[in-house]
Specification:
heterodimer; A: about 230 residues; mainly alpha; MetI-like fold; B: alpha/beta; D-Maltodextrin-Binding Protein, domain 2; 2 domains; five-stranded mixed β-sheet; 11 helices; Molybdenum transport system permease (chain A); transmembrane (chain A); MetI-like_sf (chain A)
Amino acid sequence: MLTADIWSPIRLTLELAAITTVLLLVVGTPIAWWLAQSTSRWKEIVATIVALPLVLPPTVLGFYLLIVLGPDGLGGLFGGLVGLRTFAFTFEGLVFGSVLYSMPFVVQPIRNAFEAIGERPLEVAATLRASPGDRFLSVAVPLAKPGFLTGAVLGFAHTVGEFGVILMIGGNIPGETKVLSVAIYDFVETLRWREAHILSLGMLVFSFIVILTVSMLTRRSGQRTF
Amino acid sequence: MLRILAGPLSAVVLVCATPDVARSDTTNVAVAANFTDAASEIAAAFANAGDHEAVLSFGATGQLYAQIAQGAPFEVFLAADDERPTRAVEEGYGVPGSVFTYAIGRLVLYSGEAGVVTGPETLEAGTFDRIAIANPDTAPYGVAAVETMRALDVYDALKSRIVQGQNIGQAYQFVETGNAEVGFVALGQVSQAETGSRWIVPRDLYAPIRQDAVLLKTGEANPAAAAFVAFLKGDEAAAIIEKYGYAIDR
């Protein structure tokens, strides 16, 4: 009943979301830690840049990405190293775009969790002669675990729901850039409503589970995300 | 404070009010993306010629048709094929007898850079990473692009390098930004561009792109819609259509 038309975008979307989430946890954690700890006057500027995708229309991001990833941008600079002219129309290009697009959804909950720890546990650890790295890994990260979970779930879910950016930089290549949301769009446009219904219902159930999960995670930790 | 605002505010009110005073009847027209430039010029000429105005919406023919089927408020539909306007009448959205061919489209292989596209040998040599076409599921120019590649026996070799725009406008944009080196676009899109390189695909390599228009039932009672259709059939519109590289069926 479910053909490759349906499975390929599902698999691709899950891969994209998983890789994006892992990258965002790696990149986002130091940013969240710095935002939580820093007293720099640049802090709010950086926090604003991270939060921009919440406000910008995806078309703005898509437009800039199309230029940045192209032969006159990153594609021209680094594409040659891997035999490409442009990073548009590639899975790697989608990962790059998704990391930017979903960044606030990962950084913000982790930052909140770091801030909620307060200074006290870290000071106690310092008086017990824990090094800064040790204080971060053995005290801050375990205490901020609910923030990491929330960030990971939201980052994953937001990437799964990405549409506008991918529509603009993807080129609709099956198995490479044709993700779920674009597949649904195409099914609707070509009046293939049975397939559109299957995928849309799946997304509906998935989204319900995600939000319920996040709500339960945050209720347990006493922090609200929604 | 009020005094400071009074000047600019009255100007705003004036600007907003003016169109109401000289209000003309408008009609909403759904236009296939390839016809964007020509339609815009025709709409401008139409507005100059009388007291009606046409408000244009652009998209892939398939997309627009799906929107019309869902009750979009379009009154005239300029498709990129001769299938969907007929279907619109059959399925009850179009006015019977109102279908006519307003333009015959030409397919072009285009590159933003000079010297890249020379002829069919550009496709046969295939010295490019990406070739952009319109989505063949929704856009007739995408179908013509696939037909051309099949006719030249290069489709299987090029298949993995195809990137699809949601409509012919996005295919053109992929080429213009350099993300795809070459692409199949409509002659109507590039006929006014002076740079780049192009090969106008011979007519025998793809089925003719007869672009039909239809008056939709939503516009049956609107004089502006009828006036636009009449204008589209007239000499002034024909001159614009031919200027953009389309042929006319007479």
